[in-house]
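Allow me, if you will, to draw on your knowledge of protein folds for a short while. The matter concerns a single protein, recorded as an amino acid sequence and a row of backbone structure tokens. Kindly check, if you would, that the fold set down in the tokens agrees with what the sequence suggests. You will find the record immediately after this paragraph.
***
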Amino acid sequence: MRKDKNSLSILIVEDNPGDYALISDYLEEQISNPDTEHARNFSEAEKKMSDKHFDVVLLDLTLPDKTGEDLIRDAVGKSKGAPVIVLTGYADIEFSIRSLSLKASDYLLKDDINASSLYKSIIYNIERKKSSQLLEESERRYSNLFQMSPQPMWIFDMKNYQFHQVNKAAIENYGYTEEEFLEMSLFDIVPEVEIDSVKEIDSNLESIKENLYKGRFKHIKKTKEIIDVDIYSNLITINDKIYQFVISIDVTEKVLYEHKITKAIIKAQEDERYEIGAELHDNICQILASSQLSLELLSDKTPESSLKWLMRAKEQINLALNEIRKISHRLAPAFFDELTLEEALNKLLSNFNQTNQYKINFNFDKSLGDLHLKTDIELNLYRIVQEQLNNILKYAKASVINIEMSTVKNKLFLSISDNGVGFDTVSTEKGIGLSNMKRRAELFSGSFEIFSFPGKGCEVVIYIPLDHAAGD
């Protein structure tokens, strides 16, 4: 029979010389060179365990100076993490169960022990202890990282969204105590308008590659302050149950700064558009109108043979005037004072589709007129539609365009779709136009999504919370 060649350090705590000799023989039968030490009472065992670390402690349950539960409890406490295997001559099932609850590694009856069963128990419990220590160390490192992180973190139940754990940073940043957090669900810190979005993302998280998710949301502190946060989320298993682990990074100041930059960019773009539009309307159009008047004065003095050329020149100037006016109105839409957003969009679509190249279905929910949308919202919605129409004209090869503007669950909803050639949204590089539309939507805490597949057309979808869209 092959013996275990590993050198195992074993403390045998046994006051009966016969039992000690038998246990020593069993160990030598299975282990080539067992490093054993003998203690006849608990005091000796305590001293030996303080001086040396053992791989395993074999503990007789009845010693001259200590017995029973106190003996097990103290031996486990002094063993420096080594597994403690209880050896006894009494078959007491209830006590064996209690001994294991006191963190004894095993409970063996002396009458049932042989060399093989004792060796197997020793090896099994040493390996189990190693695994347990590795697990405990891993959990300790995780706990330290979790609690010491400067970023708010929490774990919640994916079935009822109840908080399971929160770290100190979450408590400090959101203002709730740990007890309050653990009685709350995730939706207690999420604005109502975003709850459906959160549920949809969580329901699809298991299908997301590597279960990783990143997104931007709004959260509510205990003080009712609303903050912008970047969320990083992953699935985590605790005690065979799947939870969602979340890191929340407050980006409120960053968002405000980005919005300032975006507003400045958009304002510069609009100022330039209006300047060009005004120059075309007030200067170029006046020059052409004067030229048309001069030609009119020449009508009586022009020979009959040349009159048709004069009339053609007047027609071309008139055509140029109309085209310039259209360009001017596109650059500087006049719906602020003269037209509603619906009327301005209808005019835009009419100019866009002068040759009836497209079948355009435009649905504008009348309830939007009662919301008194902010002027800058109207302008940006107009620009988004204008930008996507330009994309359709350039790339889509479409014949049908559908535009819908309505309200959905306390959000303003805008959809622009076509039946064109479509494209792969993953591999295709996003252009400036799409980036501009996205920035315009996010300027009002909105979301921008584009859905397209080769041969399946394209749809741009925008949601903007009504509390950011409606005026006073």
